[in-house]
Amino acid sequence: MQEQPTRPAVSRSRQNYLKALLQLGGAAVPVSALARRLGVSAPSVTNMLARLAEERLVELGPRGAASLTASGERAAALVLRRHRLLETFLARVLELDWSEVHEEAEELEHHVSERVMDAIERSVGHPTEDPHGHPIPDRHGRLPRRALAPLAALPEGSRARVCEVRGGEDPARLTRWKRSGLVPGAEVRMLEANSDEGVFTLEIGGRRVVSGREGLEGVMIERRPRGKA
Amino acid sequence: MQEQPTRPAVSRSRQNYLKALLQLGGAAVPVSALARRLGVSAPSVTNMLARLAEERLVELGPRGAASLTASGERAAALVLRRHRLLETFLARVLELDWSEVHEEAEELEHHVSERVMDAIERSVGHPTEDPHGHPIPDRHGRLPRRALAPLAALPEGSRARVCEVRGGEDPARLTRWKRSGLVPGAEVRMLEANSDEGVFTLEIGGRRVVSGREGLEGVMIERRPRGKA
DNA sequence: CGGCGACGTTAGCTGTAACTAATATTGGAT
DNA sequence: ATCCAATATTAGTTACAGCTAACGTCGCCG
User: Fold this and answer.
1) Protein A62 CA to nucleic acid C21 C1', in Å?
2) B192-228, pLDDT tens digit by residue?
3) B79-123 pLDDT, tens digit each
4) What are the angstrom distances between the C-alpha of B199 and each of A139, B16, B118, B204?
5) pLDDT by residue (tens digit) across A41-97?
6) Contacts of A62 (CB under 8 A, 6+ apart)
7) For chain A, first and last CA: distance in Å?
8) Is A56 in contact with A71 (CB distance < 8 Å)?
9) By the 8 A CB rule, do A52 and A58 touch?
10) Which of residues 83-122 of B touch strand D (CB under 7 A)?
11) Length B130 CA → C21 C1' (Å)
């Protein structure tokens, strides 16, 4: 063992694998899915999974299906926590556009010390959600599970509140959503839902917005119980 | 060539070598000095210097003496710039203690994007000095040269203003200086300078402080022209 | 002027984490 | 039942940047 900058317990690469596993469901994730997500080759994944398995962070099933162990899941959630705290910080304190914060956090999450993370968290007042509405895991790696529905599933005439927008990796998409008012917290009403053709007409903040199904994919709502307008 | 995260023009390690070269005077730096400073072995240095020479960032003289080229010096100053901006940011915005900011910046300087650096610089109002009083190079890599004198050289009875405290790598030392009021901007008067025995008595902000020569090493002053007690 | 010690270099390894090419496995369609 | 295509694995390589051990080259001291 040679040691240069105090090798971290979980290397940068490992952190990315764990995070990807968690976001891919955490259980029975195929090698190919991981490879696609991380943009690496399948052999690289097989290799890394073997190492992670050795370290008891994942468990390997048949046909390469990987599942996070309890400690792997915790580690993954802690990476997610840093990521989301950083996004919040970048948006609120440094005033970056919400379409930019994802890629910046993607890099920083691996390099910011505990000490600085604590200061960052203080500076944004211990938020529970990031700018895209994703819940922020607590410092023990507990990630609140929420049951949300896709906006496209909202019945005609119903109201709902946008809770979370997924797919923050694509800045252009976020920019489009922001322009039409599709941000967490926005109140929307489904005016017309043509599910067959995939065309939806919504009222967002008093404005009519028409969108295709792909344009809405990832926008998640919490159904308003009292909302049968 | 394999490329994972868009290999930076100048790798982390290179940046550290360049910065160390600049701080070691930038010209005719012996291998051994670099090795000591960076905490690596001599062969590692020889190796890296060869690569840097190939990239025209340094020039190699006889007996391994390394000198920065113009572009190497610029690159080094830009690393220093990031470092000092980060220190300022960490101290002023995240309110870390000035004894902690150095080591945090040491890591972050390699991983913060241009975009975020710009936002950071804005958030601290484009400072020209870091918390330890070091000048911050401009965005073209120009580093103002200042002629400062060590505090220990101040004649008895003279006044001066502390300009810069060097040696910020050692948090304990910074903490001691801060306790005795030796921070950039402090007004001091040399009450008694026993240079032979290396004992100095100073007046700092109305308080008498006695210190040995080592305890003052790195505290730099700008002589007050009108300051003959 | 011979040799010692400091300094530097060469050679060869280590570890991480990627890659390609070739091979094995496996599940579904014929 | 067989074969194909998708999926996963094995084997071998690459790049970076560190390491140790061994060797070379000065300069100076005696």
Assistant:
1) 24
2) 999 889 999 999 988 999 999 999 999 999 876 554 4
3) 999 999 999 999 999 999 999 999 999 999 999 999 999 999 999
4) 49, 36, 45, 16
5) 999 999 999 999 999 999 998 887 999 999 999 999 999 999 999 999 999 999 999
6) none
7) 66
8) yes
9) yes
10) none
11) 53
Cβ-contact B199, B143 below 8 angstroms: no
**Cα(A171)–Cα(A105) distance, integer angstroms:** 13
**Cβ-based burial of A56 (10 A; exposed 0-12, middle 13-18, buried ≥19):** exposed
Question: Is the distance from CB of B133 to CB of B161 less than 8 angstroms?
Answer: no
CB distance B93–A123 less than 8 Å? Answer: yes
Q: How far apart are CA A9 and CA A89, in angstroms?
A: 25
Give the span between the Cα atoms of A11 and A110, in whole angstroms.
8
pTM to 2 decimal places? 0.90
**Test mutation, B111, B117, B118, chain A, max A CBs within 10 A:** B111
DSSP state of A112: -
**Token output for B157:** 């009875």
Distance in Å, alpha carbon of A123 to nearest chain B alpha carbon: 7
- Can you give chain B as a three-state secondary structure string? CCCCCCCCCCCHHHHHHHHHHHHCCCCCECHHHHHHHHCCCHHHHHHHHHHHHHCCCEEECHHHCEEECHHHHHHHHHHHHHHHHHHHHHHHCCCCCCCCHHHHHHHHCCCCCHHHHHHHHHHCCCCCECCCCCECCCCCCCCCCCCCEEHHHCCCCCEEEEEEECCCCCHHHHHHHHHHCCCCCCEEEEEEEECCCCEEEEEECCEEEEEEHHHHCCEEEEECCCCCC
Residue ranges of chain B whose CB lies within 8 Å of a chain A CB: 4-5, 40, 90, 93-96, 100, 104, 107-108, 110-113, 115-116, 119-120, 123
Quick check: A6 pLDDT over 80? no
Distance (Å, rounded) from C-alpha B138 to C-alpha B158?
33
A146 touches strand C (CB under 7 A): no
| A40 contacts B94? CB cut-off 8 A | no
In the beta sheet, which residues pair with residue B192?
Answer: B201
Contacts of A102 in chain B (CB under 8 A): none
- Which pair of tokens denotes residue B68? 């920065």
AA identity, residue A5: P
Residues B112 and A112: their CA atoms lie apart, in Å, by 10
Tokens (6 digits) for B212: 């040995």
Rounded Cα distance, A26 and A22, in Å: 4
Can you say whether the dihedral through the CA atoms of A207, A210, A211, A216 is positive or negative? positive
